[in-house]
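Structure representation.

___
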Amino acid sequence: MGFYILGMFDKSATSISQQIEILKNRGLTFKDEAFAAHQLANISYYRLGEYWYVMQDDKVNHTFKLNSKFEEVMALYNFDRELRFLLFDVIERIEISLRTKLIYHLSHEFNPWWFQNFELFEDSKALVKTLSGLEEELERTKETTIKNHNKKHKDDKRFPPAWKSLEQTSFGSLSKLYGNLKNTIKSKDVIAQEFGAVNHTYLPSWLQSITQIRNYCAHHSRLWNKNLPSTLKLLSKPPYKWITDVPNQNDFQYLYIHLCIMKYLLNNIEPENQFTTRLKILFEKYPNVDPKALGMKPKWEEEELWK
């Protein structure tokens, strides 16, 4: 008796030459097939498919629009790759600043083990998860400061103090620690004020957004033309330079407003930063990239925030 499994995936693997033929038959043109074969040998067909998808006029049969070129697919891919490099650099500066402020302000307001004090946090279960992740990170680390601390204080069952422990944790964990702090904690507002976020109401959503974008960058995921979390809370009257052409809620899925948040924070951390210049150069390098796919507003670089 034979069996048939409804909806069972039955496609077999295809060679690189077959992949090129499939794309040609669907209407994608190639200036240099040897170049394309080399790219497909190093960047998977499936990954590149995220960039040629918008070039297809029939998403069911996967046929391409007239004059769709493989070289334009590669341009989109390389633009996105360089954009991730740029944002990873920007986010690193924000992450280091957040880490520094958390360690400094809360260690002074309470003590160097504040991050283990359940009385300071809203959600005990969430803190247990954060501390469990921190414990794993500390066990894996090769940093001599942690190893030496554990040898010297082996009878102390606490984590090493904040200035040692939190240097080993991720941006996501730092963001969760900040967001989970009780709103009555003075340092929570102080840190928000130093970032230009006025108070604790707004900064957690900004950090959550940046954490997710950082994860996309770290895992080489596409940012171009991607729907992003739209949970951002925006200040009605930002104390520092901001944009006049503010996107509406429907635009929050695009990268632009998230870039604005990063720029706003970075302007407070490093006033002479080159974020605007580097972003402009990237768009100029890849003129076939439509800025609207990122939600960029017309003349965005002329906004006070970006000047």
DSSP finds twelve helices and two strands in the chain. Strands lie at 56-58, 63-64. The chain has a mean pLDDT of 93. Residues 77-117+170-306 form one domain.
